[in-house]
């Protein structure tokens, strides 16, 4: 669901009331062209996080900015998410996709992941229910130093807070 669309809150309510649907929402900031430096968008995202929290709906969020729109992404953007959005969903798990990245583990991704890791180390209320997944990260292209950095960051985050799996489809499954 695009959290910036006018239907977003109604869609959360509809899904929460339908017993046939699994309760939870998935947000993709890049595909939705989210700009966390836009105060109106952050206000809408807060409403979405609050609504999900009110319905007990876990949140999966791909927080990496849009690559096509050249939005900035890194520590500063992660700080906005930490300070502005996570407090709006204190009672439900929030899972950040791809270790805070978009399929690679570059400097921007590491700077965002480092911020979240530091917050987890300090055990703040904002991160009490914060998790990550390690899916879809292209490790075959990484140098051994980059892989070591990613592993060190995962340990700093806490391996109990990381889910493993994939949201991609193996090539052998293609039609």
Would you write up a description of this structure?
- A five-stranded parallel beta sheet has the order 1-2-3-4-5, with no helix packed on it.
- Helix content is 38%, strand content 10%.
- α5 links the parallel β4 and β5 (162-163).
- α1 packs parallel to α2, α3 (75-85) crosses α4 (107-121) and α4 runs parallel beside α5 (144-157).
- It has one domain.
- By secondary structure, the chain is an alpha/beta fold.
- It has helices at residues 8-17, 39-54, 75-85, 107-121, 144-157, and strands at residues 25-28, 59-62, 94-96, 130-133, 162-163.
- The protein is globular and about 45 Å long.
Could you name the key traits of this structure?
175 residues; alpha/beta; five-stranded parallel β-sheet
Can you lay out the helices and strands and say which pair or pack?
Layout: H1 8-17, E1 25-28, H2 39-54, E2 59-62, H3 75-85, E3 94-96, H4 107-121, E4 130-133, H5 144-157, E5 162-163
Parallel strand pairs: 1-2, 2-3, 3-4, 4-5
Shape: globular
Regions with pLDDT < 50 over 5+ consecutive residues?
Answer: none
Give the end-to-end Cα distance, rounded to a whole number of Å.
Answer: 26 Å
Number of helices: 5
Kindly report the spatial arrangement of strands forming the biggest sheet: 1-2-3-4-5
Assembly of the depicted chains? single chain
Radius of gyration, rounded? Answer: 16 Å
The structural domain count equals: 1
Q: Estimate what percentage of residues fall within beta strands.
A: 5-15%
Helical fraction equals 25-40%
The helix-strand sequence is: HEHEHEHEHE
